[in-house]
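Lab notebook, entry 458. We have the chain sequence and a SMILES string for nicotinamide-adenine-dinucleotide, and the next step in the workflow is to get a structural model of the bound complex before anyone spends time on docking refinements. Request logged below.

Task: model protein plus nicotinamide-adenine-dinucleotide, output structure tokens.
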Amino acid sequence: MSYNRRNFIKTSSLGAIAASSLSINCQNNLSIPSEGVYMGDFADKPIKKIRAAFIGLNRGGSHLRNFATIENTEVVALSDLYEENVKRELERLYQYNSNTNNVKTYWGDKNKWKVMLKEVRPDVVFISTNWNNHAPMAIQSMIDGAHAFVEVPMAVTLEEMWDIVNTSEKTQKHCMMMENVNYGRAELMYLNMCRQNVIGELLHGEAAYIHELRWQMMQEDKGTGSWRTLHYRGENGNVYPTHGLGPIAQYMNLCRKDDNFKSLVSYSSPALGRKLYAEKNFPKDHKWNNMEFKNGDLNTSIIKTEMGRTVLVQWDETSPRPYTRLNLIQGTKGTLAGYPTRVALEGGFEDLSIDHHSWIQGDDLEKLYEKYDHPLYKRLNSKTKKSGHGGMDGIMMYRIVECLHKGLPLDQNVYEGCFWSSVTPLSGKSVREDGKPQTFPDFTRGKWKKTNPLDIVL
Ligand SMILES: NC(=O)c1ccc[n+]([C@@H]2O[C@H](COP(=O)([O-])OP(=O)(O)OC[C@H]3O[C@@H](n4cnc5c(N)ncnc54)[C@H](O)[C@@H]3O)[C@@H](O)[C@H]2O)c1
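Result returned:
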């Protein structure tokens, strides 16, 4: 969308304040003081009945179902570019036994969501649109008095991320990037095991989003492929880093007291697969055949943390290979890994392994789950297992609603969303500079040292 972020902020009620933050155009703006309140452990007052609006109703339809089926919630508005999407979700909402009489609906124009925010004044807004819309929609939602919940990634540029941080601090509204993978069963169990020191001091992590998505190019004018394909044009590095990285960051307490993101180097492979796919599947004069795909098919970044730990982050949505997020965390006493889920522990584990030279995996994992399954998973799995992505979507929504109802800090704060997403612009810059190290901006302005690590929520 040709939406102009700067224009809307200038014309908004908090425009003068927000506009002053827009001049920030450097990576490390520690020297520019915050005009608001640090949001690391922020908790708002409890909201008895949460009134929610939704923008973007494809992925957003899943959030809508998961939200609407929790008690003491109310859907107050739906917005999408297309009438058919709004009508479809309204019909579904009715089937979830929700009262649809008071749901206001907006479609047909790329700016209708702004009207919605003003007319409906929701407590929270769920944003599930194309990536370029995330920042302007989240910022305006906060300015208009709502907590913003944004699909991954939080935003696309460092400037947008600073604008989000500054607006959240100024308005004291949550802005959570909804990283659902942090609520997967294996990820929750590994977090629990890390907290219990089962693998000792953490040294290294491996994260990835390797998911062959060339078929999305068939969505030529509408749908995910119509906008996502455009992100493969420039040398943009890892354009989707957060699914793999979010869990590793929370195992390591990055951005929370112990440690933080420090710097990153990145390289990309040649960019070949998209061109081949376009040549094979579309006519010669098709737009995909007249586009140069410069972003390498496989991007590999290495993050160094303040404590000197390392995190490998890979991304590939093009090559023919099975899905993986790697999900590996290595410590001084053992290693936990994903795809397939497997565990190696020094000294072995019960009668399943005698040492760390073999993996515990397959059916043998049952005993590990018995001992280390995260209490949150145990509490919510039966309620949420049909919620999407193996249940992680439902646990995430349940926690969002629970924290808002009880006035608790959210499980993922605004800074974490920005750090995890900032791998995109930083890896792109490193790739363009032939692997030159890039320093992470400190979105917390040093305050991560005071932010509590995420609890093992019961
Ligand atoms: N966490 C996950 O597991 C997961 C899974 C899928 C998608 N996603 C994320 O969800 C987001 C949406 O992805 P998608 O696949 O649903 O994309 P999509 O293009 O299929 O859907 C986006 C929707 O947003 C609407 N939209 C766009 N601009 C709008 C505007 N100005 N006003 C109102 N509506 C607007 C579109 O009409 C469309 O229906 C992306 O950020 C993606 O990365 C996350």
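Notes for the group: The pocket of nicotinamide-adenine-dinucleotide is lined by residues 1, 55-59, 79-82, 85, 110, 113, 128-131, 133, 151-152, 180, 223-224, 389 (CB under 6 Å). Worth checking against the assay data. The two ends are 42 Å apart (CA to CA).
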